[in-house]
Design a protein that fits this description.
The protein is built from 3 helices and no strands. It is mainly α and 128 residues long.
Length: 128
């Protein structure tokens, strides 16, 4: 085995470990917001390590360019998607963990809970 094989193997194992940490975080974290944080950070780093390992394994320019584009796309979109999903959950009234220290979005976003009656969200002029 060459030193490059060791690096590829190490990156693949590291990526799998990040994936395992993300899975444990999803199971163990107390609320939606902390679960999303765990899944986004660990999942993104895990996939990046595995894609980088694949690029180093194949040692071709096309594979390297594709891997670089995948990693850049992943690092650019995963945090934004996570933030948007968390804000949507916050606005829809998904509760924060009981031990949350402060609510930073409390002044800028209006929370609303689920409708009190089935079909209440459809009430309006069109349903009359």
């Amino acid at each position: 085995m060459t030193w490059m094989d060791w690096i590829v193997g190490g990156l693949a194992v590291l990526g799998a470990a990040f994936g395992a940490v993300a899975a444990v975080g999803i199971i163990r974290m107390p609320d939606l917001y902390t679960r999303m944080q765990s899944a986004t950070k660990a999942g993104t780093l895990g996939v990046a390590c595995i894609v980088l390992a694949a690029a180093l394994h194949f040692r071709e320019a096309v594979a390297t360019v594709e891997a670089t584009l995948v990693i850049v796309f992943l690092f650019a979109t995963a945090p934004i998607a996570s933030i948007l999903i968390a804000r949507a959950a916050y606005v829809m009234g998904v509760p924060l963990w009981s031990r949350t220290g402060r609510d930073d979005l409390g002044d800028s976003l209006t929370r609303r809970g689920p409708p009190t009656e089935p079909g209440a969200e459809n009430e309006g002029p069109a349903s009359a």
